Amino acid sequence: MAERIQTAPEAGNDMGNDDAIGGNVSKYMVLPAGYCGLPKKGHLIFDACFESGNLGRVDQVSEFEYDLFIRPDTCNPRFRVWFNFTVENVKESQRIIFNIVNFSKTKSLYRDGMAPMVKSTSRPKWQRLPPKNVYYYRCPDHKKNYVMSFAFCFDKEEDTYQFAYCYPYTYTRFQHYLDNLQKRNMDYFFREQLGLSVQQRQLDLLTITSPDNLREGAEKKVIFITGRVHPGETPSSFVCQGIIDFLISQHPIARVLREHLVFKIAPMLNPDGVYLGNYRCSLMGFDLNRHWLDPSPWAHPTLHGVKQLIVQMYNDPKTSLEFYIDIHAHSTMMNGFMYGNIFEDEERFQRQAIFPKLLCQNAEDFSYSSTSFNRDAVKAGTGRRFLGGLLDHTSYCYTLEVSFYSYIIGGTTAAVPYTEEAYMKLGRNVARTFLDYYRLNPMIEKAAVPTPRLRKEKPLPYKYPLLRGPASNYPHGKGNKKSSVNHKDPSNSF
Length: 494
Ligand SMILES: [Zn+2]
What we know:
Elements: E1 3-4, E2 28-31, E3 45-47, E4 57-60, E5 65-69, E6 84-88, E7 94-100, E8 117-120, E9 123-128, E10 134-138, E11 146-154, E12 161-164, H1 171-183, E13 189-196, E14 202-208, E15 220-227, H2 235-247, H3 252-260, E16 262-266, H4 271-276, H5 301-314, E17 319-330, E18 336-341, H6 346-352, H7 354-362, E19 372-374, H8 383-390, E20 396-403, E21 406-408, E22 415-417, H9 420-437, H10 441-447
Parallel strand pairs: 5-7, 15-16, 15-17, 17-20, 18-19
Antiparallel strand pairs: 1-2, 2-3, 3-6, 4-5, 6-12, 7-11, 8-9, 8-12, 10-11, 13-14, 14-16, 18-20, 21-22
Helix pairs in contact: 2-9, 3-9, 7-9
The structure holds zinc ion.
Keywords: Carboxypeptidase, Cell projection, Cytoplasm, Cytoskeleton, Golgi apparatus, Hydrolase, Metal-binding, Metalloprotease, Protease, Zinc
Organism: Rhinolophus ferrumequinum
Subunit structure: Interacts with MYLK.
C-alpha cells in the first residue's frame, strides 16, 4: 500500500476506506510499499487543492497502476462524478493506468467513446484522451461499481499534467470574464450583484438590452437565462458565455435583439459548488435545482435571490417574462436538447415546441428528437417545472441540456466531440434563434447590412408588425440523430 508523506489538512486522518474521503489530496506523493529511500522521479505527486479541483484519495495498486477516488460533493456523499487533478514528478516514458473507482453513476458516456480531458504545462490546451485508451466496466474489486480506467504515457519530465472530467470553467475565470466585459463600458451591458452565496461569493446578474428599454415606464419583454446550478456541468458556462458574447457583439442580429428584448442572465447560480469542485451540490450539500418551491434565504441564498427577482418581474405589469431557460450538461445523452413542461392546454403545449424546433434549424448539434416534455414528480423542484407552474400561458420554461461528450450531425453516425468553441457556438445559436421566434428577420434586412446566412435559413413568411405567438409554418424538426458512435478521436497528441 502507498504511504502518504503529506495529506490535505481537511482530509481527516482516516482515508483508509471508501467511505472516509473528507477532502482533496494536497501535493500527495505516492511511494511504493516498503520504500524507505529519498523520493525519486516517477514517484507521482497528486494534487487537487486548487479551485474546482477534485480528487479524494489515491491507492497504488502496482508500480504502474493507481486507484483514484473522487471526493464526494461537500455534505453530500451521494454525488461523485466530477474530477480534476494534477500529477507531477513524472519520469519520461512512464506508463501508468489510472482507475477511477467510485463514480456514483452507472450509465456513462464513457461507454460511447467519451474520454477524460488532459493538458500539461507545455501543452496548455485541453484535449481528450484517445478513446481506445479508455475502458469503462463493472469491477468486482470495487463493490461491483463501474470503474473508468485509462492508460497514459507521460512524456515530459518537467511538465505537470492535469486530468479532468470535462473542460473546467472556474468561478475565477467567470469573474475575470465579467470584469473584462465591464471595462468595455458598453451602454447595453449591465452587471449587478444579485446576492451572495453561503461562502460570500458573488451571484452575478447581467442585463443586456438597449438602454431605451430600461427607461421608466418602458414595456419589457424579458428572456431570463440561468446556468451552473449544477457546478460540475461546466459546458453550461461555455454555452452561457456564447450567448453573452453574441448578445453584446456588433452583429446585426445582436443589435436587433437588444433593441426588442431584455436579456437577464444569471450565469452561475451555484458559485460555491463551482469553486469547491462539486458535481451537483452547493457547499451545504443541497441540489439547488430541487429547491425552487421554497428556497431558504440562508441555506439557498442564490436561488432565493433569483426566484425573488423572477416573481417580482412576473408581478410587474410592464414586464412580460417570456422565456426562462436553465442551462445544464448531460452525462448520458448526446447533442444539445431541451426539456419542457406538459400542459393541459393543447395549444400551449404545441406553442412550447416552437422554440426548440427553430433552434434545431439553427444549430447542427441540437436535436429536436431528443427534446422531451414531462412532469415527473422527481423534477417538481426544478426551475423549469416550478416556473412553468407559476408563470402564465405566455411564458415558456425550458431546461437546455448539452452533452458532456459529443453530438451527432443529422444523417451521419459519427460522434463529433464537443470543444469549448462548439459549446459556445451552441450558445450563439440559442441567442440568434430569438430573432426567428420573434420574426425580427425583416429588421435585419431593413438595416441593409450584409449578414452571414443562418444555417439552412429559408425565407419564412414573417410579418411585421411583430406578433408574439406560434409561427404559422415553423420548420419541422430533423430526424432522429441518435445513432451508433464512432470511437475515433484524431485530436490527441499525448
Ligand atoms: Zn444539471
